[in-house]
Amino acid sequence: xxxxxxxxxxxxxxxxxxxxxxxxxxxxxxxxxxxxxxxxxxxxxxxxxxxxxxxxxxxxxxxxxxxxxxxxxxxxxxxxxxxxxxxxxxxxxxxxxxxxxxxxxxxxxxxxxxxxxxxxxxxxxxxxxxxxxxxxxxxxxxxxxxxxxxxxxxxxxxxxxxxxxxxxxxxxxxxxxxxxxxxxxxxxxxxxxxxxxxxxxxxxxxxxxxxxxxxxxxxxxxxxxxxxxxxxxxxxxxxxxxxxxxxxxxxxxxxxxxxxxxxxxxxxxxxxxxxxxxxxxxxxxxxxxxxxxxxxx
Length: 297
Ligand SMILES: [Zn+2]
Prior knowledge:
Blueprint: E1 3-4, E2 14-23, E3 26-29, E4 31-32, E5 46-50, E6 77-85, E7 89-95, E8 111-116, H1 118-142, E9 146-151, E10 156-161, H2 167-182, E11 187-193, H3 194-200, H4 203-206, E12 217-223, E13 252-255, E14 270-277, E15 282-289
Parallel strand pairs: 1-4
Antiparallel strand pairs: 2-3, 2-8, 3-7, 5-6, 5-8, 6-7, 9-10, 10-15, 11-12, 12-13, 14-15
Helix pairs in contact: 1-2
The structure holds zinc ion (ZN).
Zinc ion (ZN) is lined by residues 128, 132, 221, 256, 258, 260.
């Protein structure tokens, strides 16, 4: 197994770990912040290098034949080009030097530093959070359950159980999405026992039923209410009618193992770029961040 550090903190992009296993061009680490492909979110990419102070040949120095043991040498640094989770998280390595045709992976026991492509991760986190908003509003306002989703670093789509979205629907969806972004709603994640989640959360939203029975503890990603108070005082004292979101129910809670931004404002402007029929009673909605849509600023 690999300790999946990105579940507890999805903002870290540089970390240290120890090589557990090396299999040709793939390595398993004891812990990782690299996100493996899953849940509609692509894997991270980046680099792995031998940590400073690690000997090039297992620790001994001074036989005169070693190349300089500096961390920039090509045999001490690799590109991480794929990350997949199976029994553990596997990182596929490629040589930094594109002319090299084989990769010699770091030996088990080696301390390495992982460096995640932060821009690509950031884009995935923004799209993934936008997807949660879209799923929540389609359920709330169209009674349309999400049946699938796939995001990339410059566009995304979501499938929903719905007959047909009109142009007017799509315009309304885009407006609502950007209102939710503008609300600056906090986004946080926490672990919850599966039984408690099934008993207390709306299972249409959490999509718990889609998870394997073997998963006993869920990671809940929550998009908060507007102006949610950090600590409730138990009372309902504000009494001002519409502005009284303090202590209100969160906008959305979904079981999800992906990465997200910390506030809906971090997503930025969203454009609904189109729709298509995905089969009977299933619609695909395409969307992108405004900066990724040609002609949009
Ligand atoms: Zn998610």
